[in-house]
Amino acid sequence: xxxxxxxxxxxxxxxxxxxxxxxxxxxxxxxxxxxxxxxxxxxxxxxxxxxxxxxxxxxxxxxxxxxxxxxxxxxxxxxxxxxxxxxxxxxxxxxxxxxxxxxxxxxxxxxxxxxxxxxxxxxxxxxxxxxxxxxxxxxxxxxxxxxxxxxxxxxxxxxxxxxxxxxxxxxxxxxxxxxxxxxxxxxxxxxxxxxxxxxxxxxxxxxxxxxxxxxxxxxxxxxxxxxxxxxxxxxxxxxxxxxxxxxxxxxxxxxxxxxxxxxxxxxxxxxxxxxxxxxxxxxxxxxxxxxxxxxxxxxxxxxxxxxxxxxxxxxxxxxxxxxxx
Length: 325
Prior knowledge:
The protein is an alpha/beta fold. It contains 13 helices and eleven strands. The protein has two domains: about 30-125 and about 250-320, Bordetella uptake gene, domain 1 (D-Maltodextrin-Binding Protein, domain 2, 3-Layer(aba) Sandwich), CATH 3.40.190.150; about 130-245, Periplasmic binding protein-like II (D-Maltodextrin-Binding Protein, domain 2). Helix content is about 45%, strand content about 20%. Helix 8 crosses helix 13. It is globular.
């Protein structure tokens, strides 16, 4: 064997050994440095709160920093783009509502397909939304409200905290399914929408349970139904909307997604630790008190949830008269 062939053979063997050892070792040892959690929402909201709860747990568990980076934008596009274009090595991950993947592509043009470029891992929690109405309308349940709205077509209005989101699109599907007609009143934010409902300026609002729960016994607001498929622990006396309007199910899945191609054992590690965190009694109790459903979904459960979300969002977009992108 010539010296040149010997050197070439040694180099190939070394390269093969490195390839065999490097990739699995990186995944098995993950994380060995700081992990950035990019959040689609601004600081202070429910999504941010849940992301930071998870970041603290993961930092303690793995002995590495999990740093939250808030990157709010329309539809979460800035955050999803950043993570979709990141290396699939587990060091840049996304924390987001499922709407950033399942709804945003329907209502805005993106430079990539988030359903292809991002893989959901599991959720910390699933947020619930309440159908809240002005108590002075006299409706004590959803059936009575629907009857009242049908008897007064175009005379009632609803608040939407922004556009092309749950507070805007879900009510439009609800009105289509129930044969009712309400006029939209845009609000700059959810606090303004709730304030307008309390003040009697609007008649209907579909908003976060974490905010509306505190008004459960308010003299100006009546919570008629929750948008999740099942009732939620802090308000078991309030029925699910689907009990009256079959097919109307909307919730806000909040959890982790990674760039597609991230090693399975990193994904499994992340899912396992988040599941362990939310199963702690003190964490589960805290999440339930916020009006959210405790997360920790399995891979199969996440896939089923995202399928349902996609179908629901598409139906809502069509009900709004928006042409899906």
